[in-house]
Amino acid sequence: MPEDVRPRQSQELPGSQRRMEPTPDTRPRYRGSGRLEGKVALVTGGDSGIGRATAELFAREGAAVAIVYLCEDADAEDALRAVEGEGGRAILIRGDIGDRAFCREAVERTVAELGGLHVLVNNASEQTEADDLRDIPEDQLERTFRSNVYGMVFMTQAALDHLPDGAAIVNTTSVTAYRGHPTLIDYSATKGAITAFTRSMATSLLERGIRVNAVAPGPIWTPLIPASFSPDHVATFGTASPMGRAGQPNEVAPSILFLACEDASFMTGQVLHPNGGTIVAG
Fold this sequence. Notes:
The protein has a single domain, classed as 3-Layer(aba) Sandwich (Rossmann fold), CATH 3.40.50. The protein has eight helices and seven strands, in the order E-H-E-H-E-H-E-H-E-H-H-E-H-H-E. It has helices spanning 49-60, 73-85, 100-114, 138-160, 176-179, 185-204, 231-235, 253-260; strands at residues 40-44, 64-69, 90-94, 119-122, 168-172, 211-215, 271-272. Strands 3-2-1-4-5-6-7 form a seven-stranded parallel β-sheet, sandwiched between helices. Strand 2 (64-69), helix 2 (73-85) and strand 3 form a beta-alpha-beta unit. Helix 1 packs parallel to helix 2 (73-85).
């Protein structure tokens, strides 16, 4: 089977990494150098995909990690073992980031159990296809914005009382914020909101020295894909990118690490684009 073609497969949202074929590659690709030594990070959607790859890489770089996830317990346990395998401390926090009270609890648990909070990675999101704007029901619109935008705002609100001056926030937006998508209209709208939120918060937090940046991945092989698209689409997902393939989660995590650590000390309000070669503005 060619590298860029996968078996036809389908899942229900939010999707399970364990059930994907092939399994997404989340393992860090290079040796750690202590870039997050002594830091504590909270990663939403940390049980699988880009979030899990980020948690693993952060652990390799010396961070303790709070893995926040919705409901896929088996994936979360796999992520916990992977982080611990990198020599890192980790905790699992199960719940819905669309609930403001849960976000407060998640941050408070992180601080209490891991000893602080220095990096917030707002990564969790969901998407559902619709061929026509008129086909998007109100409950889907509400759910997509609550998961992707409200959850990011709630988690950031909760974190700001605990993040020290000089901390870092990294948000996950998407190439769809810049190019749009014909069947992911509400999802693309949320990702545009995240880009604007990132830039606004970067300006707002300048006096505290808290850097706020984002990554805008292109087609990445994560559980969201078989849970969102038809089996035929899944089979050739990513082949339309300039590189002719989907990316792996561990090809996005280094961009998040860069923005989270002191390597990016002169960057705020910026977006990195690990998208397989698609040229975008901004």
